[in-house]
Design brief:
This protein is α/β, with parallel strands linked by helices. The protein has three domains: 123 residues, Dna Topoisomerase Vi A Subunit, Chain: A, domain 2, CATH 3.40.1360.10; 262 residues, 3-Layer(aba) Sandwich (Rossmann fold), CATH 3.40.50; 236 residues, Orthogonal Bundle (hpI Integrase, Chain A). Helix content is 35%, strand content 19%.
């Protein structure tokens, strides 16, 4: 059996050694001939056959019909369909791209089809993958003729939209996947024989891990080889949004907050604005996000079609939708610069087809799909919405909102909408209209390859000085959740302000009812009811968290030997509004005696300064300090704070007859309002068990300080309690 030749063996007397050799084998794998490629000094290429004659290889073609390239593969895959390519290089590339079929070729080029033996393809399903040129079309016709009555069926792939001389080797260089080859084969035109149904089956060799991942560039927004549409009414800023998307893809910066999978070069075409206007927007986006212009070099290309629009499709003299010559210009540019994203703004300017004609707009969209597949690029089409009336958000998330034929939304795989916030929505969210009028929402409208987002993404249009004395609007991500939180806080403060009057009235009325140093709670409640004329429910609400009589409970607890630090902890909860953990872990170095503050470095809400009222200072002064223990409320264990407060509270609570009051509720009590706001020192004295109000009066000068006076008036949480809600303390702004 003859052995394959090496490059040295194929040395040509004038052309030298070949740059590549293809081995032709028969059904058994025996070598039949070689085709050697020689690269000439002037950049051309020549092919020479080498065949076996009389025991040696010579540079000469075979006698009789020429064998096909790939006969051994045909024998090994007898049930597979066949792809015929022009040239061995293209056949090898197609075989690597699409291993599910047998890929073959013939020798001698387009003029030698009839010299080859095509009978090995008897009974096979054949698809011809021609070169995209006149010679390729000629070869296809010749192969079809040669296979009539031989092959079961013959199809010819449509490569009319491909660049000149494009073949399978070019597809491999573009990174084509089996899916794209599938699409090419599925679009092939039937020429002869039977016309079988093409379908895939699955066997043990099928491996889902081999399925290529979806080629997202920006997740949920741009995917290679597919169309995306953005729908927006006039004046929203869809052009600057689409340009921001282009720059995001080109730089791989998260300008609009979306997840990006790869950086891709971008061609941005705008048929409505001149180049100067495009440049202004680019400058604004770069300035806002700190992007040096050189970062866009070779990554972002912008073109204006203002006055001379770049066109994709047109109507010919017969009224048929045909591809415009600009398509070839665009595709050649994209291949030359390895473009991964094409933005066309607006869609309506890229064709002259009646926009309400569904069948014809579908043909326009097909042209766009052809461009996307041929260039391996994602295409973003910017399109207007139909008229929406006064509600600027009426179309948000509506994939059918695009103006004109609905076939466009059927053609795109991804769609999203842009809408300016409506006045009603701003009012509902508690957003000032000056801000609301600058907010733009982006909603998913159609998503074939990913889950649609549940909520809109919000952006604020900010004004950016571009350095020439002008400003342009640039979209930046906006935290609507934070706005909602702020709006809720404003509402809470308004409710607290309204309820403050009620709180003050209740505290004042209760103080009038407490006329003695020691007075049982039922007596105070009866006097309050008589004074106000309120019913049982209203009285119970007013007294629900008013620990009247706690002074006696504290005094009794002390007499019975209750831990003085546990009693002090409960009093601090009532008087400061601090949380239990903040009180129990309070250290002496957190207490600023001179200025009457707690400085809590690690509270639940972070660093916090708590101004202290007079009763707290009195209480702190009464507490002994334990040597070696840093805590204000030391525990039994050396160096630790007090623990076990709940058990002590239950005993004191029972003494006071406050069976339904929890330990946590103390920081929301009316007593804390009265004490820290300076409302009725007599009441505070009773709470602390002081028999002489002058004792409390000693520290009353603290309330002269505005910051402490403000802190002593904190009652937001209590207002929430009156509403039936337990809430966080609303911190007021501090004065200097």
């Amino acid at each position: 059996m003859a052995q394959p030749l090496s490059a040295r063996d194929c040395h040509h007397h004038s052309l030298g050694e070949p740059s590549q050799i293809w081995v032709y084998r028969d059904e058994r794998g025996d070598v039949l001939q070689h085709i050697a490629r020689y690269d000439t000094a002037d950049g051309e290429k020549e092919f020479r056959p080498w065949t076996y004659h009389d025991g040696e290889w010579i540079q000469k073609g075979p006698t009789g019909p020429r064998p096909l390239f790939g006969l051994d593969k045909l024998a090994n895959m007898p049930e597979s369909s066949v792809i015929v390519c022009e040239g061995e290089k293209a056949a090898d590339a197609a075989q690597r791209l699409y291993p599910y079929a047998v890929t073959i070729s013939w020798s001698g080029g387009s003029s030698s089809v009839a010299k080859s033996d095509w009978t090995p393809l008897r009974g096979r399903e054949v698809t011809i993958w021609p070169d995209a040129d006149a010679a390729g079309a000629k070869a296809s016709r010749s192969i079809v003729d040669s296979l009539r009555g031989v092959a079961m069926s013959v199809h010819v792939a449509n490569v009319s939209d491909k660049p000149d001389k494009w073949d399978a080797a070019d597809a491999e260089e573009l990174g084509w996947t089996p899916l794209e080859v599938d699409e090419l084969l599925a679009s092939a035109e039937f020429f002869s024989g039977e016309r079988p149904l093409r379908a895939r089956t699955y066997d043990a060799n099928f491996n889902s891990a081999d399925i290529p991942v979806r080629p997202w560039i920006i997740h949920g927004m741009l995917m290679r080889r597919y169309l995306t549409a953005v729908f927006a009414p006039a004046g929203v800023g869809k052009s600057v949004f689409s340009l921001a998307i282009a720059i995001m893809a080109a730089t791989e910066r998260k300008l609009l907050g979306r997840e990006q999978h790869e950086q891709a070069s971008v061609l941005y075409i705008n048929n409505e604005d001149d180049q100067d206007e495009i440049d202004r927007r680019v400058a604004g986006i770069c300035r806002q996000h700190g992007i040096p212009h050189e970062e866009l070099n070779g990554r972002l290309y912008t073109a204006s079609g203002y006055g001379d629009p770049l066109t994709i499709a047109k109507l010919d003299a017969d009224g048929t939708v045909v591809q415009h010559p600009d398509v070839e210009r665009i595709m050649n540019f994209c291949r030359k610069h390895d473009i991964g994203v094409i933005v066309l703004d607006p869609f309506v300017s890229t064709h002259d087809i009646p926009e309400n004609n569904n069948s014809e707009i579908e043909k326009v969209a097909t042209t766009y799909r052809t461009i996307a597949k041929a260039t391996n690029a994602a295409i973003l089409l910017v399109h207007h919405t139909r008229k929406i009336g006064s509600d600027t958000e009426a179309h948000a998330g509506d994939a059918e909102a695009g103006r004109g034929a609905s076939s466009l939304i059927g053609a795109v795989r991804i769609a999203f909408t842009l809408a300016r916030m409506s006045k009603a929505a701003a009012d509902k969210r508690g957003i000032d209209w000056e801000l609301g009028n600058q907010l733009i929402r982006m909603d998913d409208g159609k998503m074939n390859f990913a889950r649609m987002k549940d909520e809109a993404d919000w952006y604020k249009m900010v004004s950016v000085d571009i350095g020439n004395g002008e400003k342009v609007g640039v979209p930046v991500p906006f935290d609507m959740a934070e706005i909602s939180r702020l709006a809720d806080q404003v509402k809470a403060e308004e409710r607290a302000s309204q309820n403050q009057i009620r709180i003050s009235e209740i505290v004042a009325d209760v103080a009038k009812c407490m006329t003695e140093d020691k007075q049982p709670q039922p007596e105070v409640i009866g006097a309050y009811k008589e004074l106000t004329g309120k019913g049982k429910t209203a009285v119970n609400d007013a007294f629900m968290m008013l620990p009247v009589g706690m002074g006696d409970a504290f005094a009794g607890a002390k007499n019975d030997g209750e831990n003085i630090f546990a009693i002090a902890a409960i009093q601090l909860l009532i008087l400061t509004g601090c949380r239990k953990a903040e009180v129990l872990t309070l250290r002496w170095d957190y207490v600023d005696i001179e200025r009457a503050f707690f400085v809590l470095p690690d509270s639940k809400t972070g660093h916090k300064v708590v101004p202290l009222g007079a009763p707290v200072m009195e209480l702190l002064a009464s507490l002994p300090r334990i040597a070696g223990n840093p805590y204000v409320l030391p525990g039994k264990k050396e160096g630790h704070h007090f623990v076990g407060l709940r058990r002590v509270w239950l005993r004191i609570r029972d003494r006071a007859g406050l069976n339904n009051v929890r330990l946590h509720d103390l920081r929301h009590s009316f007593a804390s309002v009265g004490a820290s706001a300076g409302m009725g020192l007599q009441m505070v004295g009773k709470l602390l068990g002081h028999k002489d109000p002058k004792t409390t009066q000693r520290y009353a000068h603290i309330a002269d300080d505005p910051a402490h006076a403000a802190a002593n008036s904190i009652s937001g949480s209590i207002a929430k309690a009156l509403d039936g809600n337990k809430g966080e303390l609303i911190e007021l702004s501090k004065r200097n």
